[in-house]
Design goal:
With 352 residues, the protein is an alpha/beta fold. It has 10 helices and 17 strands. The strands form 4 sheets. Strands 1, 2, 3, 6, 10, 16 and 17 form a 7-stranded mixed beta sheet that branches. A 5-stranded mixed beta sheet has the order 13-12-11-14-15, with helices on both faces. The longest helix has 29 residues.
Length: 352
C-alpha cells in the first residue's frame, strides 16, 4: 500500500494542526500543473502526537476542504509518521521476487519491534544481488495497523477512497525530487517539521540513506509561549506567527522561541551524530526545511549557525505550473513549505 502508479490522486496531508490538500495534473510532455490546493485548520484536540483522537473533527475538516476546493479524483493519498512507523534497510540472501514475497514477513520479524500481526508491511528492493553479490538490499517499512486504519477511516467517512498510504519522509522526498536537481556530490538533509513530529530524511549520492522521526515540532514553541506568558493556545499560535496579542509582543516572544529552536537544533544534532557514526557517508552539507513548524521566526538562522551549512526552505511548487488568475501567488509562496508532503503525495498514482 505504501508504494501502492496511472490514475491521479489527491494528496491529503492530515497533520496535527491542519489538513493540506493538493491536486496536480501531469502534463504529457512532463511536469505538473496545479489544479487544486487548500488548507483547513484543525482544533488541537483532533489529532494528538500524530494519533487521531476525534475522528469526527477530522472528517468534517476533510469534507469542508474537498467541497471548497472542488477536488475530485479516483482516490486520495495520505501519509503517516511518528513512532508507529519503522523504516529499515536490511541485507538478506539473494532470492527471486516470488521467494521474497513468501519470506519477507519472517525476515521482517527480526527487525520490527512490534507484533508482526499488528503492522501493515511493505518493502522495496534496492539492489537485487546481481553479478554474484552475496546479499540483496531491501527497504522495509512497517506501520502499526491501527494507525493506518484510523487515517484510511477518516478519508472513507468523508466519502472519498483512500488509495495510497505513504510516509511523510518519502512524500517530502518526492516533492524535493520534483522541484530540484538532486545533488550527487553532497549530503542533503530534508527536515520536515510538523506540529508534533519532525521527520528527517538524509539523501546521499542522490539516494535516501537515513531516516528518523523526532517527537518535537511546532507545538513545542506554542506550549513554551503558553507557559511563559500564560497565553491561550490560539494566542500563542498568533504571537508565534509574529502577531501582537494581549500580554505578549513578537519581540517578547523571540527569546522563548529561540530557546526552543536551540533545543530543536540539539535534537537534530544528535540525529546527525548518529548518522555520522553509523553510515559510511560524508557529513550533512545542506539542510532543506519544510513543514509549518519550520516557519517559526529565526529557526532557519539558528539551524544555519548550529550546523554551519546552507539552510533553505523547500519550494514544492517551484517547477509546478499554476495560473495567477486561479491562485493567489503571494499566498501560495507564503505557505509553500507547509505543502511539501501534500505535493509529494499528489505526484503518486494508483497502481504505481
Amino acid at each position: 500500500m505504501f508504494w501502492s502508479r496511472s490514475k491521479e490522486v489527491v494528496g491529503l496531508d492530515i497533520g496535527s494542526s491542519s489538513i493540506k490538500l493538493v491536486q496536480l495534473k501531469a502534463r504529457k510532455n512532463g511536469g505538473y500543473v496545479l489544479q487544486r490546493v487548500g488548507v483547513e485548520p484543525l482544533s488541537q484536540e483532533a489529532i494528538v502526537d500524530g494519533s487521531i483522537m476525534d475522528s469526527s473533527l477530522v472528517v468534517d475538516a476533510i469534507t469542508k476542504l474537498t467541497d471548497e476546493t472542488g477536488a475530485r479524483a479516483a482516490g486520495f493519498a495520505t501519509s503517516v509518521s511518528g513512532h508507529s512507523v519503522i523504516i529499515k534497510k536490511i541485507q538478506i540472501p539473494p532470492m527471486s521476487q516470488e521467494e521474497l514475497a513468501e519470506s519477507i514477513q519472517w525476515e521482517a520479524e527480526q527487525y520490527i519491534p512490534f507484533d508482526i500481526n499488528d503492522v501493515r508491511l511493505d518493502y522495496l528492493v534496492l539492489s537485487d544481488g546481481d553479478f554474484g553479490a552475496d546479499s540483496m538490499e531491501v527497504l522495509l517499512v512497517a506501520v502499526k495497523r491501527d494507525k493506518v486504519n484510523d487515517y484510511v477511516s477518516v478519508i472513507t467517512q468523508s466519502g472519498k477512497m483512500a488509495a495510497i498510504v505513504d510516509l511523510d519522509a518519502f512524500a517530502v522526498q518526492n516533492a524535493y525530487e520534483l522541484n530540484y536537481d538532486i545533488p550527487t556530490s553532497k549530503v542533503v538533509a530534508l527536515v520536515n517539521m510538523g506540529a508534533a513530529v519532525t521527520t528527517i530524511n538524509v539523501l546521499a549520492r542522490g539516494q535516501t540513506v537515513f531516516w528518523r522521526d523526532l517527537s518535537i515540532g511546532g507545538n513545542d514553541f506554542t506550549e513554551a509561549l503558553q507557559r511563559e506568558y500564560s497565553l491561550s493556545f490560539d494566542q500563542a499560535e498568533r504571537v508565534k506567527r509574529g502577531e501582537q496579542v494581549e500580554g505578549c509582543s513578537p519581540a517578547e516572544a523571540r527569546p522563548v522561541l529561540d530557546a526552543v529552536s536551540a533545543d530543536v537544533a540539539a535534537e537534530i544534532q544528535k540525529t546527525f551524530d548518529f548518522f555520522a557514526a553509523t553510515a559510511a557517508e560524508d557529513s550533512v552539507s545542506q539542510l532543506v526545511l519544510s513543514g509549518g513548524g519550520s516557519l517559526t521566526p529565526n529557526l532557519q538562522h539558528i539551524l544555519e549557525e548550529q550546523f554551519g551549512v546552507p539552510t533553505e526552505f523547500i519550494d514544492p511548487l517551484r517547477r509546478v505550473e499554476f495560473s495567477e488568475s486561479n491562485f493567489d501567488g503571494q499566498w501560495l509562496r507564503s505557505i509553500a513549505p507547509t505543502l511539501s508532503v501534500a505535493v509529494g503525495l499528489a505526484t503518486r498514482r494508483i497502481g504505481d
